[in-house]
Design brief:
The protein has about 140 residues and is of the alpha/beta class. Helix content is about 55%, strand content about 10%.
């Protein structure tokens, strides 16, 4: 059963093997417990196409994504994201356009968002958030 949703920063940290704590937590999870939003896949592919090693980076992403469930963005995800965006704009503390979609998806599916971009996501009401890059 899926319990966790990775944002782009967590996936990049995992790909770059930047945190032993993150790698250990991922290895402790059962198959299917971690999801990656299709939005994160988009961000990763965008980064790959902007890079000097396009084919290498696209293949790295493809190999990584086959080990996780990639979640499409559905109607309830969009409703939650719209609510989050409206509340944060009203409070004068909006977050990035892709981050609001990822946060909305995590809320809609009652998943814990894994991110090392805590300062951005901690503003989102009712979002369960963890940073696995710290012990």
């Amino acid at each position: 059963m899926m319990r966790f949703l990775f944002d782009t920063s967590a996936v990049i940290s995992l790909l770059g093997q930047k945190s032993d704590a993150l790698i250990d937590r991922v290895l402790d999870c059962s198959e299917g417990e971690i999801g990656i939003p299709a939005i994160v896949s988009h961000e990763l592919c965008f980064g790959a196409y902007k890079s000097q090693k396009v084919l290498f980076n696209l293949e790295t992403i493809r190999l990584l994504l086959r080990d996780f469930v990639v979640l499409p963005f559905d109607e309830e995800d969009s409703r939650q994201a719209g609510e989050v965006r409206a509340k944060l704009n009203e409070a004068g503390s909006p977050i990035g356009p892709y981050d609001v979609l990822i946060a909305g998806q995590a809320r809609a599916r009652d998943l814990i968002l894994i991110s090392n971009n805590v300062r951005e996501f901690e503003r989102v009401p009712d979002l369960r958030l963890e940073d696995w890059t710290v012990s």
